[in-house]
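User: I'm new to structure prediction. If I give you an amino acid sequence, what do you actually give back? Let's try with this one:
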Amino acid sequence: MALGWRLPVAALAVVGQSVIGYVTENGKLPEWMPEKLSWLGKLLSAELHFSLWVLIFVVVGVGIAGWWFLKRQLLEAKECDERLKLIKNELAIYKEKASALTENNVELMRQLDARNAQEIESTDRKPLFDIKSIEFRTIAAIAVGINRGMPVTLAYLTNALRASNIEVLAALDTLSLAEFVSSSITGKGRIYKLTAKGRAFIVNEV
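Assistant: Good question. You get back a string of structure tokens that encode the predicted 3D arrangement of the chain. For your 206 residues, that looks like this:
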């Protein structure tokens, strides 16, 4: 019962301080006080059991804790929504960048394919032998000898090209590997002649 009268006294002290402040400033009691605080007077004048006060504090405490918990949950939900919006915006930006990179890669691949095709075409058009090379001069000399009906021997080629036997034989080896020139043994010695591939080369390049 001792606690039962201390709590009302504390409440009265708080209310009294507020009323004193108001009276000091305005010189009269608040007009709403008699009507608005009548229930408080009845409550404070009542002799409440200690367990009832405990119950009141528990209910008030649970209410405050529930309000605080709900407010915190709402704040966390709001922060979560903001984070989700931020993540969605970042994903949209990353998707745009990925799309742009994909388009750039496609364009680069197209340019690379076009460049490779040009290089292949350029390689195909490049002469197999330089016009001043001993191989080109040798196959041209063989074509001239065939046109003149002359037996194209090693001696004929060295004389026509004004080159040594080693140089002419090296050129003939290269032309034979390229399947441009073949040879056969006759009574006049080894005769060199053009293959079908060699004749096509002469027609297209010379």
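You can read the tokens as a compact description of the fold. Here is one thing that stands out. Residues 50-125 form the longest helix (76 residues).
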